[in-house]
Prior knowledge:
It holds the Pfam family TrkA_N. The protein is α/β, with parallel strands linked by helices. Helix content is about 35%, strand content about 30%. It contains nine helices and eleven strands. It has helices at about 10-20, 35-40, 55, 75-90, 100-110, 120-130, 160-165, 165-170, 220-225; strands at about 1-5, 25-30, 45-50, 65-70, 95, 115, 135-140, 145-150, 175-185, 190-195, 210-215. A six-stranded parallel beta sheet has the order 3-2-1-4-5-6, sandwiched between helices. A five-stranded antiparallel beta sheet has the order 7-8-11-9-10. Helix 4 runs parallel beside helix 5 (about 100-110).
Amino acid sequence: MKYIIVGLGYFGSSLSMKLTEMGHEVISVDSDMAKVTQFKDRVTHTVCLDAKDQQALASLPLSDTDVVLVGIGEDFGASVMAVANFKQLGVKKLIGRAISPLHQTVLEAIGVDKIIRPETEFAERLAKSLDLTGILDSLDLTEDYNIIQATVPPRYVGKTIQEANFRQKYNINVLTIIRPKESTNLFGRSHRKPAAIGVVAADTVFLADDIMVLFGKMEDIRKVLQ
Length: 226
């Protein structure tokens, strides 16, 4: 896929480099030539231009771009102007980064396709992982339902999925289990790499090093992990 990322701050540069590493074509835009030069060898393309200038943005290959993401965080005015310009230019999909409730309200009013709040979202995920012992990561699907990665509580080690009976007792589904797997690196050395075992069966047994991937309400997941 082809992406345009506006803003080469920490968030924008990290996203640009990761998408490039994944094999996507990325055009990263910033008005600071020093940043453009800094990342020119780590991103597919870097361009120095002012995203507040609609005429300058029109010179980009917008019709061939699948997603435009405005990741400017420190300059509220520049972010809003860039989003408004891309909206008027009719890009296929427009994502805006909000750094405050007011910022989000303005982006909603402009009519972006999606709003992201990376700082808030990370804080929420971190809070959940700190709130309960065993939670490694979380994903909010809705306000009520979550997907959680958590270590297996000791009382369930050696039990099968059927014996643990999470669905009946707690209304929770075990989506899969992430289990260390022996693997060999390029130098022929053996090491353990986490891998999902696929769809679990009723007779799948929980092992001590397993990571459960659970789906359900946070209040129910809390009961399992406490």
